[in-house]
């Protein structure tokens, strides 16, 4: 009997404690997420603890955002656990934020999930680095060094043209058989950024090269989805021993591979002879304490080169794959491009950037592939650098801000056929090329893509060279490819096969 009384009393105490903890946690959760601001953007009802995260399809976030856009308007709010998020939609809204109020929206949120690969104070890379002195110094150095190694110059164009030749040779080796263009295009595009960062290109069959590209793609896949978002807003879970290394195994392997490449550079580094971007960064690192204070340290070298590789490879590769997918689905468009190529360039000499101005239709098709492919539908998150207002709404400092670029590239008030592949979006009534201001595939403002200039050059030369040499066709036994794409930080076409018939 005494034992029963003790158990009864004990369970009663546990129940009281459980109720107390539940009430305390709910009150804490309410106080933590309570908005004290008037004129804060509207949004869906926030649930305890998780906020609005259950409402978002993190495998297709742009589709979820588009639904809320229709319900709440161009500016709406979400809540990732206790992190306040505001989503901007439509051309006018995004332009006002990123261009007219560039400084207000130039910051980035902190990403705890990168800490296990060296991300932290004065080593945040460049793409996701927070807005401030270190980011400005690293960006200025990066742009200057990229120009030194040919960005925007004839020398780099010649390298792209040479790589396009290697790509054509690899495609010819398929001898008209059905094949997946993804691997060869990935190799060609990655080779261009590798030559700038690491001083040389790789043969397409090189095992080291294949491993690097595979590790990079695995790391991208790991960074997409609900779990990564949840860990970034609940970073205490990352303190569980071994969890980051297990969850982000591909990310860690990719950074370990970059370590090997940098170590090889360091072993052969000569400060009197700068071979590439890595050498230039090492030279800055050697300048002492002031350089270190400006972010020139080993961890940042790893992260900056990883950022440049990401910015200069997968996005361009995905865009080219979208472009060739549209050629398969629109053979009439491909025929028009063939005629324009034959008229302006012919079949013998290689295309150059000077040809672009005389090829309005080809140029329009490339831009429409970028718009319709929509490879960065939600861009990278920004953060309000200070308290600000946007279209009458108050957005407090520290708020995570997402620019729904998909809503810009498919804004019904700008584009005649926003959800269709329609190259005439970029042609005037006289058939001349025009570029609407709402064309923002590289984002805009302070955080516009560093590799945009290289990407534009690669897209034109690779695309035009391949269509100069080949006619691309769907294999007879293959189903019609899907056009919805899949999201893994960027939106890529589903795998498809084609045949390349020499012209």
UniProtKB/TrEMBL annotation:
Answer whether the UniProt record assigns the keyword Iron to this protein.
yes
Q: Does the keyword Transmembrane helix apply?
A: yes
The UniProt keywords, alphabetically, are:
Heme, Iron, Membrane, Metal-binding, Monooxygenase, Oxidoreductase, Transmembrane, Transmembrane helix
Q: Where in the cell is it found?
A: Membrane
Membrane-spanning intervals of the chain:
12-31
Which Gene Ontology BP annotations are present?
A: alkaloid catabolic process; arachidonate metabolic process; coumarin metabolic process; estrogen metabolic process; isoquinoline alkaloid metabolic process; monoterpenoid metabolic process; negative regulation of organofluorine metabolic process; oxidative demethylation
PROSITE patterns for this protein: CYTOCHROME_P450
Recorded hits in Gene3D superfamilies, A to Z, give:
Cytochrome P450 (1.10.630.10)
Q: What is its main location?
A: membrane
SUPFAM superfamilies for this protein:
Cytochrome P450
InterPro entries registered for this protein in UniProt: Cyt_P450, Cyt_P450_CS, Cyt_P450_E_grp-I, Cyt_P450_E_grp-I_CYP2D-like, Cyt_P450_sf, Cytochrome_P450_fam2
GO molecular function ontology, one term from the record: heme binding
Which amino acid positions bind heme, per UniProt? 449
Q: Which family does it belong to?
A: Belongs to the cytochrome P450 family.
The protein in question is named Cytochrome P450 family 2 subfamily D member 6/pseudo
What organism is the protein native to?
Answer: Anas platyrhynchos platyrhynchos
């Amino acid at each position: 009997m005494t034992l029963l009384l003790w158990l009864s009393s004990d369970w009663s105490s546990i129940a009281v404690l459980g109720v107390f903890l539940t009430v305390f946690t709910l009150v804490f959760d309410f106080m933590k997420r309570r908005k004290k601001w008037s004129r804060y953007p509207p949004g869906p009802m926030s649930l305890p603890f998780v906020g609005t995260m259950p409402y978002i399809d993190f495998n297709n976030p742009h589709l979820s955002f588009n639904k809320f856009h229709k319900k709440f308007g161009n500016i709406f709010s979400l809540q990732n656990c206790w992190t306040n998020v505001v989503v901007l939609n439509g051309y006018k809204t995004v332009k006002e934020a990123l261009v007219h109020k560039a400084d207000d929206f130039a910051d980035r949120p902190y990403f705890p999930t990168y800490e296990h690969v060296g991300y932290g104070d004065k080593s945040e890379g460049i793409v996701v680095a927070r807005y401030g002195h270190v980011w400005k110094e690293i960006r200025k150095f990066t742009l200057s060094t990229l120009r030194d190694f040919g960005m925007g110059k004839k020398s780099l164009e010649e390298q792209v043209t040479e790589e396009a030749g290697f790509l054509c040779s690899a495609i010819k080796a398929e001898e008209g058989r059905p094949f997946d263009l993804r691997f060869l295009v990935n190799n060609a595009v990655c080779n261009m950024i590798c030559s700038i960062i690491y001083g040389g290109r790789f043969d397409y069959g090189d095992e080291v090269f294949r491993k690097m590209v595979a590790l990079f793609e695995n790391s991208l896949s790991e960074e997409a989805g609900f779990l990564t978002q949840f860990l970034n807003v609940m970073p205490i879970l990352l303190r569980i021993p071994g969890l980051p290394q297990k969850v982000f195994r591909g990310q860690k392997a990719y950074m370990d591979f970059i370590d090997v490449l940098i170590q090889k550079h360091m072993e052969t580094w000569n400060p009197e002879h700068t071979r590439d971007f890595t050498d230039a960064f090492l030279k800055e690192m050697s300048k002492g304490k002031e350089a270190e204070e400006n972010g020139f340290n080993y961890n940042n070298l790893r992260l900056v080169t990883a950022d440049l590789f990401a910015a200069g490879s997968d996005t361009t590769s995905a865009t080219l794959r979208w472009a060739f997918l549209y050629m398969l689905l629109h053979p009439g468009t491909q025929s028009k491009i063939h005629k324009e190529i034959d008229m302006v360039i012919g079949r013998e000499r290689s295309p150059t950037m000077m040809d672009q101005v005389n090829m309005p239709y080809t140029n329009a098709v490339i831009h429409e592939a970028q718009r319709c492919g929509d490879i960065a539908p939600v861009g990278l998150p920004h953060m309000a650098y200070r308290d600000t207002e946007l279209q009458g709404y108050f957005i407090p400092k520290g708020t995570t801000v997402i620019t729904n670029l998909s809503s810009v590239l498919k804004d019904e008030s700008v584009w005649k056929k926003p959800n269709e592949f329609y190259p005439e979006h970029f042609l005037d009534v006289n058939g001349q090329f025009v570029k609407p201001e709402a064309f923002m595939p590289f984002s805009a403002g302070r955080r516009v893509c560093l590799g945009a200039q290289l990407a534009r050059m690669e897209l034109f030369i690779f695309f035009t060279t391949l269509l100069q040499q080949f006619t691309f066709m769907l294999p007879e036994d293959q189903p019609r490819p899907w056009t919805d794409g899949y999201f893994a930080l960027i939106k890529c076409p589903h795998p498809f096969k084609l045949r390349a018939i020499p012209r």
